[in-house]
Write the structure tokens for this entry.
Amino acid sequence: MSKLLKAYTNSPTVKNNDEENHTAHVLERCGEIMKEAAEHIERNEIENRFHKTDRVLEVLSFLKSFDYAPQTEEDKRFVDAMINYYDTASYFVSMVNIKNDKVLAEQMAYSFQEMSKTWLEMERQGEEAEKASAEKTDS
């Protein structure tokens, strides 16, 4: 798993751009956008709500299409789980539009923020595992 995350972090998509391209930060921003969509629902600003949710759907589509190139079975299971998450999140974001549902928009904001925290924790664990592996090799 840490190899997969390292490959993503070192990919040209991420390395050649600023930190906002990291999945954790992108998901965090999706959470912020969904909070904004909820506020638009509360003010009955349908067009603004649509633009916010459409933006999140575009981001989810991008994340889903990223070529993670899994190397191991563990990586493949992780990629499959993330694609499932992106598909499910896309469905619920679409439902925010269909139902004009403020509560669902807030729940999706929370979901994106939690997934962002999960990615940051995985990055931390991957870095620790890499560091421990390097220390073992050095000794």
About this structure: The first helix runs from residue 2 to 9. The chain has one domain: 2-138. Confidence is low (pLDDT under 50) at residues 16-21. Residues 2-138 form a domain with the Four Helix Bundle (Hemerythrin (Met), subunit A) fold (CATH 1.20.120.340).
